[in-house]
Amino acid sequence: MLCDPDGNLANGVGSRPLGHAALKFFAAQLMQCSVVEALGDNGDRGGDAVPAHWVFGYFRFTRVWMQGLVVEFSDDGSLFFLDDSTGIVAVVPAVGQATVPKLGREVAVIGDISWNGEMNSFQVGNARVLDKDRDPDAAAAWMLEVCHVHKNVYYRDEDVLRYYPPSFGDGDMELLDEA
After folding, report:
1. Strand partners, 56
2. pLDDT tens digits, residue range 106-126?
3. 154: closest CA among 25, 67, 53?
4. Cα-atom radius of gyration of the chain, to the nearest Å?
5. Residue 175: burial class (beta carbons within 10 Å; 0-12, 13-18, 19+)
6. Calpha distance 82→53 (Å, rounded)
7. In what order do the strands lie in the sheet with 59-61?
8. Is beta strand 106-116 parallel, antiparallel or unpaired with respect to 121-131?
9. Over the stretch 38-87, which tens digit does the pLDDT of each residue have?
10. CA atoms within 13 Å, Cβ hemisphere of 97
């Protein structure tokens, strides 16, 4: 969902649940996000009227979509660790998730994002896990998808473009003459 520079929802609906869409991220990009704590009906912390959410540019979200290799399982098997080549996140599959990933498999995960202080890492909880191992182009396609959406959607606002100017591939570059 879009929000204005002050953090208010751009559509003016402040009590609507936030972040139903899962934003595509690399693990390293999550470090650029900030968290806004949940506030109750009285403005007290920890209420459930507005859930805790993350802010990236003008976007508020509670869910992410990530993809990478399964590199490790916890001792009790309740979670696994996903490496997307930029960092590692912990993933807790949704209850009743039929797909149990195997070590070394390429998977996509879509779920709720949180910070796990005990593990000092991000955690994707209640995650739907999709096996991408049968697609030989899955990793390359994912890298392009995330770069594309960040360049053309997340960074398209004029205020944001001042800090993240467009670069190669926008058609504004002059071709060099061959010598």
Report:
1. 59
2. 999 999 999 888 888 899 999
3. 25
4. 18
5. exposed
6. 22
7. 34-36, 53-56, 59-61
8. antiparallel
9. 665 555 554 444 557 888 887 888 999 999 999 999 999 889 999 999 99
10. 20
